[in-house]
TrEMBL record:
Domain of life: Eukaryota
NCBIfam families, per database record: 2am3keto_CoA (TIGR01822), PRK06939.1 (NF005394)
The protein's name in its UniProt record: Aminotransferase class I/classII large domain-containing protein
A Pfam entry, by short name: Aminotran_1_2
Length: 423
């Protein structure tokens, strides 16, 4: 029957209704012109994002289709080197064999396996919070939270430089939206005062901001939140697994694990890098998210191999902090050598090491030259970062060797001299 319909429909459209068809062709051509125009303006603005094709697995050494031999990769969020860790990969294979490729279902219909519950429990344990809910991504986690938690009588106070997923998530909720200046406690206080007439207040910040690798002033934020009766939410995508004495995150680093109410993070960075996001926090909140959160209710369960990999990654980190310590040592090796050579590296101890260059063209030319030295790094310029603050963002991984770090520094010195950044 289906086949018959297919054969019939096409001639009917083409032969019997020619005017409708040409109208739709005209509309399609018009849409195409509009899209081409939009694409041209992105190219003209110099903000076109090309995708480099990697032909190997993710790791400190990768192969790409435009270069012979392997290159050293310094632009992944693979902070702990777990993306291709043998135990993590094996756990994914085991989960694939025992639990299959996927669930073909959302969680509440028939998409929850013991595997998912086990990972949620481990993540809650890792963050020392009551409960955890998994999402297909942290982007989804952020999209789901605010709408459920906050109504029109509430206020959300958000750092102006928060991640796009938080900004989108906040747009979806009906609460009063207030933005405070980047990491500015006095501006936050002004706004908290203004928000006193609201029913609830939620302060929202990235734990670590990904462009500068700077750490939110969480202790001050928690003090203000206590003083003005607000909850605190942090997005820990660039902190989970390695910041703090046991790698629990920015809240552990700054001694406020018991004062931050809600944490969102990702499985797509340090925790194996596959995919998935989650929220940890008070049990009633997590229960309510399972009932109401749209990205959770209407999107497929995380695939078992992804859950298997992430579970092993979290287990490795619950067992020992050795990997995170090794990453920190390499981060400091890079930061110290680069500073000694005369470069300016923003941030302090974070594995995001922005090599500040200022000029957008310089950042772009230097990153191209770095690739000729076999080092893969990416330049960032306006509008991703402010005008005049172009940089090459280097990201260190525990999987880099000391020799990898030294080779990267050497390449920076040579290209820096060539472009007059170093004398
Ligand atoms: C990467 C990132 C996200 C998105 O995480 P996904 O799991 O990849 O969707 C959200 N917030 C911040 C701060 C991030 O850096
Ligand atoms: C945190 O994640 C949840 C879902 O994972 C999402 O619904 C929520 O909007 C996120 N919160 C913030 C403040 O980003």
């Amino acid at each position: 029957m289906e086949r018959t319909q297919f054969i019939l429909v096409a001639p009917v459209l083409g032969v019997l209704r020619p005017s409708t068809l040409s109208r739709s062709f005209a509309a399609a051509a018009e849409a195409r012109a509009v899209l081409e125009n939009e694409l041209d303006s992105i190219r003209a603005a110099g903000t076109w994002k090309a995708e480099r094709i990697i032909t190997s697995k993710q790791g400190p050494q990768i192969t790409v289709d435009c270069s012979r031999g392997s290159i050293l990769n310094f632009c992944a969020n693979n902070y702990l080197g777990l993306s291709s860790h043998p135990e993590v990969v094996q756990a994914g294979i085991d989960a694939l064999k025992s639990y299959g490729a996927g669930l073909s279902s959302v969680r509440f219909i028939c998409g929850t396996q013991d595997l998912h519950k086990n990972l949620e429990q481990k993540l809650a344990e890792f963050h020392e919070r009551e409960d955890c809910i998994l999402y297909a991504s942290c982007f989804d986690a952020n999209a789901g939270l605010f709408e459920v938690l906050l109504g029109p009588d509430d206020a959300v106070l958000s750092d102006e430089l928060n991640h796009a997923s938080i900004i989108d998530g906040i747009r979806l909720c009906k609460a009063k939206r207030m933005r405070y200046k980047h990491m500015d406690l006095s501006d936050l206080e002004v706004q908290l005062k203004e928000a006193q007439s609201s029913r609830m207040r939620l302060v929202v910040t990235d734990g670590v901001f990904s462009m500068d690798g700077d750490v939110a002033p969480l202790r001050g934020i928690c003090d203000l939140a206590e003083q003005y009766g607000a909850m605190v939410f942090i997005d820990e995508c660039h902190a989970t697994g390695f910041l703090g004495a046991r790698g629990r995150g920015t809240d552990e680093l700054l001694g406020v694990m018991d004062r931050v109410d809600i944490v969102n993070s990702t499985l797509g960075k340090a925790l194996g890098g596959a995919a998935g996001g989650y929220t940890v926090g008070p049990k009633p909140l997590i229960d309510l998210l399972r009932q109401r959160s749209r990205p959770y209710l209407f999107s497929n369960s995380l695939p078992p191999p992804v859950v298997g990999c992430a579970t092993r990654a979290v287990e490795l980190l619950l067992d020992s902090n050795e990997i995170a310590q090794s990453m920190t040592a390499k981060t400091m090796r890079f930061r110290n050598s680069m500073t000694q050579a005369g470069f300016t590296i923003a941030g302090s101890a974070h594995p995001i090491c922005p090599v500040m260059l200022g000029d957008a063209r310089l950042a772009s030319l230097m990153s191209d030259d770095m690739l000729k030295h076999g080092i893969y790094v990416i330049g960032f310029s306006f509008p991703v970062v402010p005008k005049g603050k172009a940089r090459i963002r280097v990201q260190i991984s525990a999987a880099h060797t000391n020799d990898d770090i030294d080779r990267c520094v050497d390449a920076f010195i040579q290209t820096g001299q060539k472009h007059g950044v170093l004398s």
